[in-house]
Amino acid sequence: MMNYKGMEKIACPLPAWKLEADQDSWREIARDCAQAGGRLVALWGSSAGGKFFVHAALAFAEGMLIAACPAEDSFPGLEDLFPHASRMQRAIFDLCGVMARGGDRRPWLDHGKWEGFPLGSQPLLEPFSPESDYPFVTVEGEGVHEIAVGPVHAGIIEPGHFRFQVVGEKVLRLEERLGYKHKGIEKAFEGLSLAEGNAIAGRISGDSTVAFSWAYAMAAESVCGLGISARASLLRGIFLERERIANHLGDLGALGNDAGFSFGLAQFSTLKEEMLRTNKALFGHRYLMDRIVPGGVSCDIDDSGREMLREEAGKLRRKVRDLKEIYMDHTGLQDRFMTTGRVGLALAARLGLAGLAGRASGICRDLRADHPAPPYEGLPFSPVCERGGDVAARVLVRFGEIESSFDLFLAMLEKMQPGEILAEMPMASGFGAGWVEGFRGEVFLAVEAEAGILRRVHAHDPSWQNWPVLEHAVIGNIVPDFPLINKSFNLSYSGHDL
Domain tally for the chain? Predict the structure, then answer.
């Protein structure tokens, strides 16, 4: 049972607490979490009162505990407990100048271009090595050769570098190098009001604008101790489920295309486009950007709009079911999907695989079921889980989640009653947290504010957990299958690099 001295409840719809501990206790709390089957959600640094603190957002069965510890120049690393902590620790040093003790000390976000620590006050003692000197791990042996892919790719996609060690076409090892999309998002929050920060949050990762906006709004509202109306909560849920459906439709089409089935891309792209046009017609934005704001939502829906959503859901659901039958019966697709990019349950649990990809490997975690806050409380919902851990399983989870998301947002439509949709945000000081199950997995956001002005905002995309797992998923597969495996995870560069 999670029970530590000094725990304080955070005014958040989800069960969340915070505490401050010394470095030894902080490390012990993290160990307790790992031993209890919990997980590290996020790791970041911030300054307050002239002191630097490192924060760990830890998910226990009872909820989230955000533990902070002072760290003047270093802090105890957590990568032995949570392997995905390594890159977060490297990012903390790049941004703040405070190093984790032990583990990988290579730069992560800084590609040798920065002149200091953007979120820290310590001087840069010596410049990082230039990009060309980054020490990639290599594999040696007869017939082993290296393939470098990116960061510039042959298509309109975000930049990331992938270094393959292969024999023939078989992949022995993959190492990623990310950070090319770093835009200074966390620095850009500083000095804005709680209300103004929402515009940046919604633009962290365009395909998850609803999830990040909701997490930010939840965090800002928890700073103020502000609740929102039932109608606003239901509208937020409808927006989030529509974002989930639209992304899954796009992914299913792209996965078909990567397996040589362009018919799937055409059909699913058409269905996604229909949803986006309905979003524009009813809510004013194709991707629902800026529809969720601190205090509630910025748009409403009338009875005719609700009926339009019901009709659309019925039509799209029938088409998706027909396409699922085609995908399941298509020998060529299944040959490419099955056993490709497999991540078994044991490996997924050890590496902290999160969200959709985790559920495809048998990790049946979903905030909507584990900690159902409004508007999910009282709605029948069970996470969609598979155990295959391969591309085929990740495809099945997407089909299943489209069905459940239709059920959820239709149920939310039925529960809607007249009411206000937006409450005024007061000026406040304090710490707040937001935690939302986006289409990839759990999106987390922490806010520190003084008199309504943002001092520190940390945003976390589940891609931080899942990018390292992709390196394992591709081992033993052939190089031409990498685009398919990569797409089956569909991880965010922008949400990760910030």
Answer: 2
